[in-house]
Design brief:
The structure holds two protein chains of two kinds.
Chain A (H helix, E strand, L loop, with lengths): L2 E9 L4 H6 L9 H16 L5 E6 L14 E4 L3 E4 L2 H7 L4 E4 L2 H13 L5 E3 L6 H10 L7 E6 L9 H17 L5 E8 L18 H13 L2 H7 L15 H11 L7 E6 L4 E7 L8
Parallel strand pairs in A: 1-8, 2-7, 2-8, 3-6
Antiparallel strand pairs in A: 1-10, 3-7, 4-5, 9-10
Chain B lengths: L2 H12 L2 H9 L1 H11 L20 H8 L3 H6 L4 H12 L8 H9 L13
Classes of the chains: A alpha/beta, B mainly alpha.
């Protein structure tokens, strides 16, 4: 059976690529600290020696649209082109192409549906920065096959938080039952408190630093009970109008499992939003 | 109220570099053209298979035609779509990094929770 080599959850910040590659006067004052933290975080994936990546993210109205909106979708394609014109325009993100892994995609689709998730699928999916940001931060060589999984954290009505957690658990069980000798890292990105297009956007910190501190503690300690008790679709509007992206963190907590303490946890207080980085090794990891 | 159509306008303009410039230069004309020619196109269907019922309310049409993003927020347009497109339109006019984004926040500062419903 396949091995879950690592479970990784983080924020995805589309400005990282530009900040980390800028030089001279263009380079923001926080760039060096940010790069150092990302490089340390990257080591947590490198150490796990993954053969392929399951990537959980959320399309930002790029390919998925309100005329036909899936709640949970798995890509099943030999390749995924990546990043869109408006991401190139606003964030300077490069165009990319990532190899797919159709066998694991098919296994997750069949198994997920048999486990109670009627998953949508796509045979031609262009992925956006919710998946390419963690490729850029964690695996910039972009050399491993991926299975992209998209969630709707963006367009109401959305699934309940508990469904994100449950889907995370199903993904973990399915990867562990996949008849393969491969080492799979399950990587997902979401948000802490975040405001986009509202009065609290682009402040000196995230819109709700107290929510961020609490959420980081929930994730680092695997405290799904508290997260599920205190988070609802209604409550997530309060820390910031784009905070439903926290449900992708909850999905990743579901992958890691109830009570699973992160083996690595770090954060960075930036303008606009707090960055946070977590890694679990369910089966241990070799010494660095 | 046709929040879906507001979002469809923002979405289809934002993804097309030529339409972004056209909307910046001639908002009123672009909105009129789009409502007449594009509003009823189903994005994943052949152009001959159109919808027949989509139209802006007067308030929506005016807000789009005047680049009035605070009004779009109040009308329940999806804030991510509005922000992304308006950054493309107007960030270039601000010398300071994030100057437009901060002005945008300030112009919405009279809003408290709950914000307008964005459900479609």
């Amino acid at each position: 059976m396949a091995t879950v080599a690592a479970v990784i959850a983080s924020t995805h910040h589309p400005f990282y690529y530009r900040a980390s590659t800028a030089t001279g006067e263009e380079r923001p004052p926080f760039a060096d600290e940010w790069v150092a933290k990302i490089e340390a975080f990257r080591q947590t994936l490198t150490r796990a020696r993954p053969d392929l990546l399951v990537m959980v993210g959320s399309d930002h109205f790029h390919q998925l649209w309100l005329d036909n909106m899936p709640q949970f979708l798995i890509g099943k394609a030999p390749f995924y082109d990546a990043n869109f014109y408006n991401e190139e325009r606003e964030f300077g993100l490069p165009r990319m192409r990532l190899p797919g892994h159709e066998e694991l995609s098919a296994y997750l689709l069949r198994g997920g549906m048999d486990a109670g998730f009627d998953l949508a699928f796509s045979n031609e999916l262009r992925i956006d920065h919710s998946i390419t940001c963690p490729i850029i931060t964690l695996r910039p060589a972009a050399d491993l096959p991926i299975v992209p999984i998209y969630t709707n954290i963006f367009a109401p009505p959305m699934p309940q938080p508990k469904r994100f957690v449950q889907l995370g658990g199903v993904i973990r069980e399915l990867v562990e039952s996949w008849p393969s000798g491969q080492r799979v890292a399950i990587v997902g990105t979401g948000h802490l408190s975040l405001e986009l297009g509202g009065p609290r956007q682009f402040g000196p910190h995230g819109p709700d630093p107290e929510f961020d501190r609490t959420a980081v503690e929930w994730i680092a300690s695997g405290d799904l009970g508290s997260a599920l008790a205190q988070v609802s679709l209604d409550s997530l509007w309060e820390p910031g109008n784009a905070t439903h992206g926290f449900m992708d963190f909850m999905l990743m907590m579901g992958v890691a499992g109830e009570g699973a303490k992160a083996d690595y946890a770090d954060s960075l207080d930036l303008f606009h939003t707090m960055e946070a980085y977590f890694t679990w090794y369910p089966n241990g990891v070799d010494a660095p | 109220m046709s929040k879906y159509l507001l979002n469809k306008f923002l979405y289809t303009i934002d993804r097309d570099p030529e339409l972004v410039e056209r909307y910046r230069d001639d908002p009123r004309g672009t909105v009129a053209w789009w409502e007449a020619e594009r509003a009823n196109l189903i994005l994943n269907c052949h152009e001959g298979e159109r919808s027949s019922w989509l139209a802006f309310s007067d308030a929506e049409r005016v807000a789009l035609a005047t680049h009035d993003y605070p009004s779009l927020f109040g009308l329940g347009a999806h804030p991510f779509l509005t922000l992304t497109l308006f950054i493309a339109l107007f960030e270039r006019d601000h010398a300071e990094p994030l100057g437009f984004q901060r002005e945008y926040a300030a112009r919405l500062s009279h809003w408290g929770l709950p914000y307008p419903d964005i459900s479609t």
